[in-house]
Amino acid sequence: MTATNLLDFDLEGLAAFCEGLGEKRFRATQLFRWIHQRGASDFEQMSDLAKSLRGKLAGCATVTGLPVLTQQESTDGTIKWLFNVGNGDAVEAVFIPEEDRGTLCVSSQAGCAVGCRFCSTGHQGFSRNLSTGEIVAQLWFAEHFLRRHLGRDERVISNVVMMGMGEPLQNYGALVPALRTMLDDNAYGLSRRRVTVSTSGVVPMMDRLGADCPVALAVSLHAPNDALRDDLVPLNRKYPLAELMSACKRYLEPAPRDFITFEYCMLDGVNDQPEHARQLIELVRTSGVSCKFNLIPFNPFPASGLVRSPAPRVQAFARLLADAGIVTTVRKTRGDDIDAACGQLAGDVKDRTRAAERMAQRRTVMMRKVQTEPEHPTVGEAAR
Ligand code: SF4
């Protein structure tokens, strides 16, 4: 019989597991605290659990994290881990320390099937979904490693962003118990505003998340109109902007003081012109979505054929949005020296979807189209 990894359970799941062993539900709370609050993996360590329960657990359960393949620390304190998830796949998590918070960026899939043009994970293709335990293991490891590393007793990670490798809403079944564990006071006790799911716009799952576990939502927007977004974020062909903006509006209905964070990767000559800012302002006005914009300087990688917007253009773009009353920030790039910045989490996956091939084909088609249709100069500039 294979042992059950207890990192796979939220508290409800663990309670059901304990009941299956003939144990009372409150035992699950004790066990959950040992695992997540104290980082314990050895049942013998769990001194307030009855000896008989410890014996039962040793026979059928484990608390098994992910093997760390590499750890890199940036001069700015950012730490990136590469975790082995087996079968030739590896995923990354990044800790970003700031004065008033410590944020962990967590992966949800080995690779990603969405295939955004500007994202190096997308260029790697998709291998498989991570399990709940593999998602939680990134936080479990990082939190307890950092406490030891920094010599601290209290919590180090105050925020989690599901912005690592993968589209979290395409791994919904594993994601929700992982989020519940992050929020649980018997585990990490993060407030729902400090846990952010970032999606490229899987509309039906946005509705489900709003009903099941309404954490903060970030939407990878990256383009102000369907034509451009179809190219940059292919999922837009399935869920175009009008549907996406309606879903954002619905997400906020139960909590009108919340807002959506729109992420916008600034690509030289592609989506960074004043006209794009004006279209964004119009999009936000007509949809009535309460939002903030986060402009992200693109982290170039050769296969993308894209270039980072010059800093003055990013600033000018931010000013246009801010002048229209939209709260806008420009993301500081962190961990540049260890390739830990946004969109650089490439991990190492076995591409089971041949996405890299399809991306290369798309790029070639785009270049051909540009050569024959000079009326799309912005896209052409990028493709070249
Ligand atoms: S930006 Fe997100 S959704 Fe798009 S390819 Fe990268 S990981 Fe996937």
Structural commentary:
The protein has 384 residues and is of the alpha/beta class. The chain folds into two domains: 59 residues, Orthogonal Bundle (DNA polymerase, domain 1), CATH 1.10.150; 316 residues, Aldolase class I (TIM Barrel, Alpha-Beta Barrel). The protein is 39% helix and 18% strand. The chain contains 13 helices and 14 strands. A ten-stranded mixed beta sheet has the order 3-4-5-6-9-10-11-12-13-14. It has a two-stranded parallel ribbon with strand order 1-2. The protein has a two-stranded antiparallel sheet with strand order 7-8. A hairpin with a 2-residue loop joins strand 4 and strand 5. Helix 1 packs across helix 2. The longest helix is centred in the middle third of the chain and has 19 residues. It is globular and about 70 Å long. The chain starts with a strand and ends with a helix. Bound molecules: iron/sulfur cluster. The site of iron/sulfur cluster has 12 residues, from helix 4.
What is the ordering of alpha helices and beta strands? EHHHEEEEEEHEHEHEHEHHEHEHEHH
In CATH terms, the superfamily of the largest domain is: Aldolase class I
Specify the biggest β-sheet: 10 strands, mixed
The value of Rg in angstroms is 22 Å
Oligomer: single chain
